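Recall that a protein's primary structure is simply its ordered list of amino acids. Everything else, from secondary elements to tertiary packing, is in principle encoded there. The following example makes that idea concrete.
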Amino acid sequence: MKTKNLVLFWDWNGTIVDDAFVFVDVLNVLLKKNNLQKITLDFYRENFCFPVVDFYKKLGLYQNASFFNSLNEDFISLYNQQKHSPKLKTNIVELINRLNNLNVKQYVVSAQNNKTLLGLVSFYGLEGSFVGVFGVDNNLASGKKNVAAYLKNKHCVNSEILVVGDTVLDFEVSNHLGARCVLVDWGHCNLNRLSSCGVPVFSSVSGLENFFIKDLGLTSL
């Protein structure tokens, strides 16, 4: 894979920003409100899935569509109160910057609401680090595959795309695009689940960087 043709589609939540604990905190408020048992971060990372309605069902938080939609609105409201509290994954910005120095095109492709996503990328001072930032048009974390496909067909024709993410959904997105994928286990899904995807999984930013150097031939990092 040559550098000039390489395009990275970075996931945001859990991959670049270390925010899984926020989702657990918010879910625990909703669980308590509905007299259900709280969950741990370990449980969350072992069970979180897309579509999110299926995860709510696992937690016992689903009664019907109307109830779910109301609960999701509560989730978004509570999340917005804490969305600036997480830190960026240690050393991830340095890696992104080194890739930019090699003229590797980098995008953020997320299942987060696009307006919220743009605000967060700006909040963390990363708006200049990516060619583009693309989220979905809803608050249900739905439509990431379509967003990635649009980006590929509109802006990345004849490019070699590599999806970098932290969930099984990111692997599914890569399959949808016919692209390569690497996963990181410091986010919303644990190593056990990600290993089943059959693609490289990394537990550190340095491991991810070594992959870029060895497997992609980016020797100038």
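The two ends are 15 Å apart (CA to CA). The mean pLDDT is 95.
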